[in-house]
Structures are given as C-alpha cells and as structure tokens.
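Hi R.,

Here's the input for the S-adenosyl-L-homocysteine complex you asked about:
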Amino acid sequence: MEKKNRVATLPQPNPMCGGDGPHSYARNSSYQKAVIDCAKTKIKEVILEKLDLAHMCLDLNTFKIADFGCSVGPNTFDVVQTIVETVKRRYEQQNIREAQKHLEFHVFFNDQSNNDFNTLFKNRFLSVCKPYFIAGVPGSFYDRVLPRNTINIGHTSYTLHWLSKIPKEVCNINSLGRNKHNISCSNLVEEMSKAYKSQFEKDMGDFLGARAEELVSEGFMIMSGMCLPDGVPMVRTWKGVAIDTMRDCLIDMANSRILNKERVESFSLPLYFPHMSELEEVIKQNECFSIEVLERMIHPMEDLPLTNDFIASTYRAIFHGLIEEFFGDGVVDELFDRFAKRLETHPIDFQTCVKDIQYFVLLKRNSH
Ligand code: SAH
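And here is the predicted structure with S-adenosyl-L-homocysteine in place:
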C-alpha cells in the first residue's frame, strides 16, 4: 500500500482536504466555523470602537484586507464579509464621506501554494455576488507574502498551531526511539515540549515580524485559535486524546504490516498548541504591535459531546494531505475507517477531559 518512492522524508505541514466532496474541508469545517462565529461578534466590536480610519494610511480609498491561512472556504468568506461590512459602518460612523463615495475593498487570500485555490475561487459567493476585488497569495505566512505597508486589516483563524516544520530535536528524539509512542506534543516528555515550544516561538516571531512589515500604521491584526490553559498538558484535552487514538490506529496498521513500522515510529505532526501565557509572552516580544485585546472565547460546541463521526470527519479533512504525503496513497481511507471504529470501541470521555481555550487577539500596528 505504501509508495515509498513518492513519500516525504518528514511529515510536512499540508493544506486541508481540497474540493467540495464528502471528505473535503469545505464540508467538514463546522468546528472551525464555530470559532469564527464567536470571533465575529468581537471583530465587529473592535472595528467599531477602535479602528481609526482618520489616521490610518489609506491608499486611494482602497481598503485592503488579508486572510492568512484561508484554506478553501467557506469560513474565510464569512469572516471577510463581516470585516468588510463593519468597516463600511465605521466609515459612516466616522463620517468620512468623501472617502466613502469611492471606497473599494481588495481582499488577499493567503495559504500554502499547494492549497486548493481553485475551489476557493470557484465559490458561488465570489462569482455571483462579486463582493470585493480578490487576489490569491500563495506562500508560507511565516515569510513576507505581501508588499510592505499595504494591509489595513490582517486576519487569521485556526492556523498558528501549524508549525513551519517538525523541530529537528523531535526528529533526533524520534531517532533515539524515545518518541515512539507520541505523534505530537503531548506535553508529557519535557525535551519534546521544549523543542516544540521553541519552534512555535520562532514561527510566531516570524509571523508577527512579516505582518509588522505588511500592515500600515494603525492597521489591525486579528487572530483567533486554540491554546491550552496554563499547566494543562495536551493529552488531557479531547483533541489530544483524539490524536493519541490516531496514533494507536497507525500502530495497529504497522502491526498488521499495512504500514512500515519504522516509518510509523518516525511520524510526528508539525502541530503545537501553546499555553495561554506562552502565547501572550511571544506576542509581547514583538514591539511593533500593541496588544489591544487578548481574551478567551467560549467555543459554542464546548459543552456538546461531539459524535464520533463528527470527530473522524473533521480530523480526516485536516490530516488527509499530510498523511497521504508521508505514508503514500491509499492509506487515508483505511486509517480513518479504523479511527472511526476505534472511537466507537474506545470513546473519548469528555467528562474527564480538560477544556481547551479559544483565544481572540487584536493587535494594532504602532506607527512605522
Ligand atoms: N482559516 C480557515 C482555515 C483553517 S485550517 C478556517 O478557519 O476555516 C489551517 C489553514 O492554515 C490551512 O489551510 C493550512 O494550509 C494553512 N496554513 C498552515 N500553515 C501555513 C503557512 N505556513 N502558510 C500559509 N498557510 C498555512
């Protein structure tokens, strides 16, 4: 089943499952959409209360918005539309009539170059409503992807836990065989946590450094996503338990000789969910931004026991590309069939899991 000649040496951060089929991210991202729904209320508040259009550098009345790690939709359209409508209201509120007459929006959709941009651009909302001018911006958001001093509002949601790569120390720890039983940062092995944490700090530093250049003075950077309460290891959350379940399925597949054992043992996910204080600390280190808001949101699904089918299809849409690239074609169906079955026989005990935190952050670009 494995096609060794085509697979990557290390698991790579990979886009979400493209297209609009039954396993696509477009049809299996309501968990991430719910975070955007909560953030939308806050986005409206902060734009109406804090966006200073009078002092913001506006290029010929074109208001520029960028969504970093937009994936294939529809979530990105939802949040961008909220930003556009609220900025229009802010123009009315600040009574900038002259600019309002000519106001146009230009939206930059960024994701990794192998993201399914075709699905994004084919979306009916864009083709029918033509709500704003659009551009696709392929490339890693850990580098500069847009010209200096051009973006008025940057946004990113559920993206910053994706590291740019697996930290090299984790590969070494793997090669010493110490990581055999962890495929992500469980926060139980100290050396591993340190390695993931320092990669996260480097990546976040790069992300904020790049955005600091791209944003205009007084520009907003809005970020939402998931982190952990201080002191709580990832393995105590339901998402950590689900990742361990995925690992158990990979080990079963190695034991059944469907997958190569060494390859499974060397598998890790380039993911790191920081603790709330780590997130705050790394943001503070960039002096180009002031932290206007950093708070916790309640995920609307937080108290629902999620069904096993829901968890399996959400995880499949997220990890499809990464698994296929590392283990080869034909593995994804088998892995996620096993994953769904294992969730039935070993259900996640939501009662004993600790709740993770959904964060909402608003940064304002200080004057250049
Ligand atoms: N913001 C969307 C998608 C979240 S999924 C939503 O809320 O629904 C995470 C997205 O981040 C994926 O599309 C993935 O390809 C993208 N991503 C991860 N690392 C990235 C990087 N270094 N540069 C650009 N995009 C990245």
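One thing worth noting: DSSP finds twelve helices and seven strands in the chain.

Cheers,
M.
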